[in-house]
Amino acid sequence: MGKADGSVLQADLAARVAGHFSASADLKSASAAVLAGPIAKAIGLMTECLRSGGKILACGNGGSAADAQHFAAELLNRFEVERPPLAAVALTTDTSTLTSIANDYSYDQVFEKQVQALGRAGDVLLGISTSGNSANVMAAMRVAQKSGMGIVALTGRGGGKMQAMLSTNDVHICVPHTVTARIQEVHLLALHCLCDGIDAVLFGAK
After folding, report:
1. Where are the domains of the chain?
2. Cα dihedral 151, 103, 62, 70 in deg (nearest 10)
């Protein structure tokens, strides 16, 4: 490859990267009107849970597992203001628990069994799935419902099978897109909005 060819490739890559930025920005702007209401409702559900001494359990797979851990860390430690730690647990981090359940039973039960053990009435389950069809997240949702927990479902692609599982008291935050990367980018923004809203309601953060 000659030097000129390399320059053309770099220009093409730069344009490709710029296109991703534009697509992400456009989706976030378009999603604001659609998601602001559900996110505000989710903040209300989560703050009521935390005020009552409950906890938030979060789960998801792959990038959504990372988002669950990110969210739990922001609550347990801090987001943008100094305040007391808040009760949140990511169900994606204990490899001994995950591999034990997957090996002895099924990967579909890795979150379900943890919710059975840790979830209590008044707690909230945050289930994250870009497709809305993650079997292990849906299994956790079924247990959460039986336990009297609230549910916040963070999805995309129309909400998949998870959408039909939700009751009127649950919250569905569904990104209006079909590309996984774009959905995950808005998921992260939604999680930061949840963290900010929780701090604002509980501690008056500006």
Report:
1. 36-203
2. 60
The C-alpha atoms of residue 131 and residue 148 are separated, in whole angstroms, by 25
Q: Give the residue from 171, 159, 188 showing the smallest Cα distance to 27.
A: 188
pTM for this entry? 0.94
Q: What is the pLDDT along the chain (206 residues), one digit of tens a residue?
A: 455 566 779 889 999 999 999 999 999 999 999 999 999 999 999 999 999 999 999 999 999 999 999 999 999 999 999 999 999 999 999 999 999 999 999 999 999 999 999 999 999 999 999 999 999 999 999 999 999 999 999 999 999 999 999 999 999 999 999 999 999 999 999 999 999 999 999 999 77
Options 3.30.1390.20, 3.30.360.10, 3.40.190.10, 3.40.50.10490; which CATH number does 36-203 get? 3.40.50.10490
β-strands 171-175, 150-156 pairing:
parallel
Query: Of 104, 105, 123, which Cα lies nearest the Cα of 115?
Result: 123
